């Protein structure tokens, strides 16, 4: 038993950094050598009806899921206790909001996968990496919903992950990993977190990489972009006037 626990502690001490390193290096490599591939490869032209339904459900649901994870993993339990939010109340809101957001996200991605499978041109534009990404992402959502129900006590005994998983998560970022805390969590948490680490590791090599992009340029560009015709010479003159710097 001691050897098993020790192996578990080593696993939770090392694997998160491996996943994080793959994500960082992979993102750098993708940006450096595959800028033209840094896109969602939109297939809206092929089919838009299901896309209009599934895409908002997935993206808005995922946004709520991410915010919920940040609150649960980053904010210590002592902080919510200090403002009068008991563990019971916290679990109730976690079940309510987490279940709604998780189901919306899962429904959205199921619609998107169904759309890709039944629409010929969209399916043809789906790469092997996309298929792996969808599989891992759906697995993460399903196990996340199961973990919410299991950990909250709605199904089986209650487990306060804010005493095990959350401190372990915070310890990773301060470079003092506490794998022993994560090893104490139930198996459902181990499965869910392992799948999440796999998702982060393959993230840069899938269409999910577009999440790291934001159209900041649109905040500073002029409303109308004028293009001028350069002279046939060295391109430094426009007509008889010097070329000015644009946006």
From TrEMBL:
Role noted for this protein: Does not seem to have nitrate reductase activity.
Species of the source: Nocardia alba
Single Gene Ontology BP annotation: anaerobic electron transport chain
Protein name (Swiss-Prot/TrEMBL): Nitrate reductase-like protein NarX
Entry's family note: In the central section; belongs to the NarJ/NarW family. In the C-terminal section; belongs to the nitrate reductase gamma subunit family.
Cofactor(s) the record lists: heme b; Mo-bis(molybdopterin guanine dinucleotide)
GO MF, one example: metal ion binding
Record's subcellular location: Cell membrane
Coiled-coil residues: none
Protein keywords: Cell membrane, Electron transport, Heme, Iron, Membrane, Metal-binding, Nitrate assimilation, Oxidoreductase, Transmembrane, Transmembrane helix, Transport
Topology in membrane: Multi-pass membrane protein
Keyword Signal attached: no
